[in-house]
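ARCHIVE CARD
Drawer: 12
Card no.: 0347
Subject: one protein chain, sequence and derived structure
Cross-reference: see card 0346
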Amino acid sequence: MSDQQSTTVDTTGKNGTVTKENNYNKRIPKSQQIAYGFGDFGNGFMFDLGQAYLTKFWIDGAGISAGAVAGIFAFTKIFDAFMDPIAGSFVDGRKNIGPRGKFRPVMMVSAILLGIMTVVTFYMPSALQGMQKIVWAYAVYMIWGLIYSFTNDPYGSLASVMSRNPQDRSFMATTRQVGSVGAQFIAGVAFIPLMELVGGGMSSKDQLHGYFFASAVFAFIGVCMFAICYFGTKENIKVHRDKNAKREGFKDYIKVIFTNGPLGALILMTLFTISAMNTNNQMMVFYAQYNLGNIGLQPVINAVMMGCSIVGVFMIPTLTKHFGQKRTAMWSFVIGAVANILNFFLPTNVVTFIVLVTIGYTALAIPNGITWAMVSNAIDYGEWHTGMRKEGITYAAFNFSRKIAQSLAALVSSGVLALTGYVANAQQTAKTLTGIKAAMTLYPGFCLIMAALIIGFLYKISDEKFKQIATDLDNGKWEHGVIGDEDVKAN
């Protein structure tokens, strides 16, 4: 029997004997695993674009104050977070599943709408003034966030029904993180030059024109990448679906969080890791322009930093094979924390900054990639622990933490600028420069220390534990009985 095949076992439930595959050992084609990563490649062209450049677009291009921008990000990200349960419940509640599966159709339609809204977020009508600009920014970004939930929740859930094999999941986590960092790399290197090329200058009017057309190019590429994911993947695992299940409400969403210990650990960890990464991305353009004195260094630094991160992410399968998911993530966080903290205390210097920020970012990108495999494991744990499988709402709960983390990053980035007296397109004071440096380096260092402690003490799924979980699920069992047996299912 080849490694692409699997043994089968007989499972007896209420409705008789059925045959189930041993999905823990079964492998899926590499082409599907690679195609899955293109989804986050497309995601990055739209999501990471906003995280990196909307702050500067609204402040320097549209003329909105830094304090108001902090409020926009903080409120809209919290609003987005509460949209995730709606998206997760919608996906889990789909009844008429066609040949394309449960998750991919929702993902693809939403991705097209997300591309349109990405362009709209980088557009500011010339007739708007003062408070009207702020209201516009709130409205378009809230709509963008709602659509993003309906794109990302089914995309994230898709991996859990593509394969249950740990090596496949590690490889899909790798391709997903490579896609994400690859998109960050391209956005970090090409967006500002493309914006300046199209806009023709750095005046507010030129910037508005350049941002709009550059975002349109990136959004189009992003939708195309999602299309590759849509056509290249398949939902291979046959899982138990309760046809009589009711669509979950917010109470079910809260229950998922508090009954799934590994998910809770990932949620808490993500508050720190994603806020660290987004703060880094948002502050880079400010740090290059003002602390280093040359905005042209921003694409260069991003090219080195994200290029090395891509190389690091490719090491995930090897690292997790030898050290396991948990240990690899923990020690990566420690290395990243040390590099970032050193970067704050050392005098500002282009060379040392690039070296240390690259080490810190790469050390963060590796566990962020591993997290995707951990989320799929947490979805399986939830089914094994409760007897009910809820991919959409479980992933929505995880995504909730990412949205809150993004809001936190926006508060840190825009808040530091506002509190230290930042003035758009002007020479900055020493206080402002110190604030920018602290947000760029010291804050991520603190976050990675917290992430290492959380994953070390609170995440309880070892490699052996997951093997037991996967084997039980393949045999149609959960922690206390047979899946589908209502007499013993958890309440």
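Annotation on reverse: The two ends are 41 Å apart (CA to CA). Confidence is low (pLDDT under 50) at residues 1-20, 487-491.
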